[in-house]
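Here is my example:
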Amino acid sequence: MPQEGLRIDLLGTSFTIKTDKDPEYLKKLLDRYKRVIEDTQRGTGLSDPIKVSILAGIVLCDEIEKNRSETNLFDKAETERIATNLIARLNEAIKD
């Protein structure tokens, strides 16, 4: 896949990265990060680009961890449901 250029304009700095990743996907990620930066600036009143970017990174890490926890809870619950169902089916088969 040919390398594409992605222009990044954030917090007073601009640069272009070259990547072979899907440009639409990267734009979606960049748009999400921009929204988190804007929310962070609004919520904290900070304007220092380094502080804002650090806090925005922490917010995104928090979202990732919460999603992992929710996924793990679902996986555990689903595993328990499947195991219980299998045990019940085995008990029925043994009775016959």
Observations:
- The longest helix spans residues 49-95.
- The chain has a mean pLDDT of 87.
- The chain has two helices and two strands.
- Residues 4-95 form one domain.
